[in-house]
Design brief:
It is a single chain. This protein is α/β, with parallel strands linked by helices. 31% of the residues lie in helices and 29% in strands. It has two domains: 2-213, P-loop containing nucleotide triphosphate hydrolases (Rossmann fold); 219-279, no CATH class. The longest helix has 14 residues, at 106-119. It is globular and about 65 Å long. The two termini are 34 Å apart. It comes from Alteromonas profundi. Keywords: ATP-binding, Nucleotide-binding, Transport.
């Protein structure tokens, strides 16, 4: 269990990145949703012990993280949105280097590295420098290093960026298996991924958690009130505008049918997210 209480962080330029955040995350996969600038990356860097908060508390499985960050680091896997690597070092060498830093037994490290290279489809290029990798291959290396050491808490910031559909599907299957015994905090702009993979989610706006809980509970207030139309509605709240075969498609929140050609739709987490986004002041 991860417990966050009244967490605050303001940067030197006065930007209040996270404001009074409180959140409870049990074992499993928890999604973190929010637009750019909502404070998601700041929250994840703080949880990864890369920067201290100004105030508040973080505990994980009884560990006071702010007082004893090394105790969490030994159980943590972290994939930031962007990361650097040592030049000229191969993927295999870098994984061994990280295993050494994590103080993983050599025999266990050898087994884990071989398994992770296979799972991330990097075995054939494991002896090539990571700096020579394509964006998708580099991201797969990032996933491998985050999973090294069987961490009990994994933080993933946009893990599917640069992955092709097959690689993304493979990662999803892996994360679902891992999350049965591990807490996985997943941040992504692909709302559908969070709805499909996570049991719980938190929505961040302007540095605050505006809602959190089981995904079914987050969607429930919109149930029976989402409609789809092929023209801009004259009533209700426009949730989103998209296109299908090049034609406009509008999703609308309204307690009653907004037009005779409107089609009732099952509410989704994406509807809930856009509904919240449209409510927030700009």
């Amino acid at each position: 269990m991860l417990s966050i209480s009244n967490l605050n962080k303001t940067y030197f330029d006065g930007t209040k990145a996270i404001s009074n955040i409180s959140l409870q995350c049990p074992t499993g996969m928890v999604g973190l949703l929010g637009p750019n600038g909502a404070g998601k990356s700041t929250l994840m860097r703080t949880l990864a012990c890369l920067q201290p908060p100004d105030s508040g508390s973080i505990t994980f499985n009884g560990i006071n993280v702010l007082q004893n960050p090394n105790a969490l680091r030994s159980q943590l896997g972290y994939l930031p949105q962007s990361f650097g690597v040592y030049p000229h070092m191969s993927c295999r060498q870098l994984l061994w280097h990280i295993a050494t830093l994590k103080k993983i037994d050599k025999r266990q490290a050898a087994q884990q590295i071989a398994t992770l290279l296979s799972l991330t489809n990097l075995t054939q290029v494991a002896n090539k420098p990571v700096t020579s990798y394509s964006g998708g291959m580099r991201q797969r290396f990032g996933i491998a290093q985050a999973l090294l050491g069987d961490p009990k808490f994994i933080i993933l910031d946009e893990p599917t960026a640069g992955l092709d559909p097959l690689e993304r599907q493979r990662l999803h299957s892996l994360l679902v298996k891992i999350s049965k015994q591990t807490l996985v905090l997943l941040s992504t702009h692909i709302v559908e991924d969070i709805e499909n993979l996570c049991s719980r989610a938190a929505i961040m706006m302007q540095g605050k958690i505006v809602d959190s809980g089981e995904i079914a509970a987050l969607i429930a207030p919109l149930s029976g009130k989402i409609w789809e139309m092929d023209r801009r509605p004259e009533c209700g709240i426009v949730v989103s505008e998209s296109y299908h075969f090049g034609k406009d498609r509008w999703r609308v929140y309204h307690s009653e049918i907004p037009h005779t050609n409107a089609i009732a739709c099952e509410a989704t987490l994406e509807d809930r997210y856009f509904f919240q986004l449209n409510k927030e002041p700009s």
